[in-house]
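Duplicate of #3305? Posting structure anyway:
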């Protein structure tokens, strides 16, 4: 008994490759979605990998143990399928009924990391509003893309006005890349030479964070103030009073320990002309991200930055978090290089990726 793997752009293509080599008697043991290799492969359509078992007819016939094992595998797969069917059959309620016209797109979203309940909610609302039975496949595809574009929304990057100082805070869990993200945006603005910039850090719990920002401030030739409390913040603002924009790096901490009474949030609330960015990692799982944004719900006005896009297996959490928070997404980061690996979110590109078109 032999086992081989076949890869195709679709399940049908992989099965056809299997049949051509092994014949119709080959048995499919498993099917899974895999990413193409390399950084560019991240933005390409996933591949389908099929694992198949077959008799090696050039060898001796399979022994009794091999046959019994294969029968057991087939029975286990059949049992698993029946369990899935029973569970799905017992799920009641119109909220979990997907319009057949949308099932293909629902599956693509879920495969690319969109939570099934969110994909279901979006498509149920769509099918309630539009009679899809009267639409052809191309029209339905365009409707789905347009709906997803609306749900993700337009990007909302930093915009500055002449003669108006703005103070920009970066908040979020530890390890998501707040300091590096701040440096990327600051460096791009310095290169444009349109604005005078100042830096403040309150992340004094991590010596490495302060030193990292000091290095960036020296390279970019912009001043840095280190603060330890609320009074220090106001003194730093006086020192940087001539700057057009002031970027503030805050201490990262676990969302489980987050308290809206923390001094940094008192500082944020005391500042008038400000923007706040909640920095999240694309590699964090959905359940944790959901818990994080729940903990930050006391912040009413903020934007979102997703980091480590290059390290993420899927991008569904961009739609998930946008759906849960209704907060605009400003930037995504795609690596560690300063200032290059950051860009304003491209909504159309994200939608195409979620639908498996790139």
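Output from current build:
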């Amino acid at each position: 008994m032999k086992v081989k793997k076949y890869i195709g752009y679709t399940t049908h293509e992989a099965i056809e490759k299997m049949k051509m080599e092994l014949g119709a008697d080959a048995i499919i043991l498993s099917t899974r979605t895999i990413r193409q290799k390399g950084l560019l492969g991240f933005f390409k359509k996933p591949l389908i990998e099929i694992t198949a078992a077959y008799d090696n007819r050039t060898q001796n016939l399979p022994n009794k143990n091999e046959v019994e094992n294969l029968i057991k595998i087939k029975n286990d797969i059949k049992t698993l399928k029946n369990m899935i069917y029973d569970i799905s059959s017992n799920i009641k309620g119109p909220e979990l009924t997907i319009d057949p016209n949308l099932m293909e797109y629902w599956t693509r979203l879920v495969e690319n990391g969109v939570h099934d309940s969110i994909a279901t909610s979006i498509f149920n609302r769509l099918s309630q509003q539009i009679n899809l039975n009267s639409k052809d496949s191309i029209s339905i595809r365009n409707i789905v893309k347009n709906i997803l574009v609306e749900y993700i929304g337009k990007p909302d990057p930093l915009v500055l006005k002449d003669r108006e100082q703005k103070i920009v805070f970066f908040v979020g869990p530890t390890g998501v890349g707040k300091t590096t993200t701040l440096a990327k945006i600051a460096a791009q603005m310095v290169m444009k030479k349109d604005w005078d910039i100042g830096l403040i850090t309150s992340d004094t719990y991590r010596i490495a964070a302060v030193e990292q920002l000091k290095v960036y401030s020296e390279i970019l030739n912009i001043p840095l103030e280190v603060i330890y409390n609320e009074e220090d913040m106001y003194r730093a603002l006086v020192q940087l009073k001539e700057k057009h924009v002031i970027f503030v790096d805050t201490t990262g901490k676990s969302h489980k320990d987050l308290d809206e009474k923390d001094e940094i949030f008192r500082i944020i609330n005391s500042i008038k002309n400000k923007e706040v960015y909640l920095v999240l990692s694309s590699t964090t799982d959905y359940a944790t991200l959901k818990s994080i944004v729940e903990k930050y719900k006391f912040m009413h006005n903020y934007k979102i930055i997703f980091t480590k896009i290059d390290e993420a297996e899927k991008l569904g959490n961009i739609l998930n978090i946008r759906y849960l928070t209704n907060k605009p997404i400003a930037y995504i980061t795609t690596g560690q290089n300063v200032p290059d690996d950051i860009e304003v979110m491209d909504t159309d590109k994200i939608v195409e990726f979620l639908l498996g078109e790139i």
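Confirmed duplicate; merging threads. The chain has three domains: 2-90, 94-152, 166-354. The first helix runs from residue 11 to 22.
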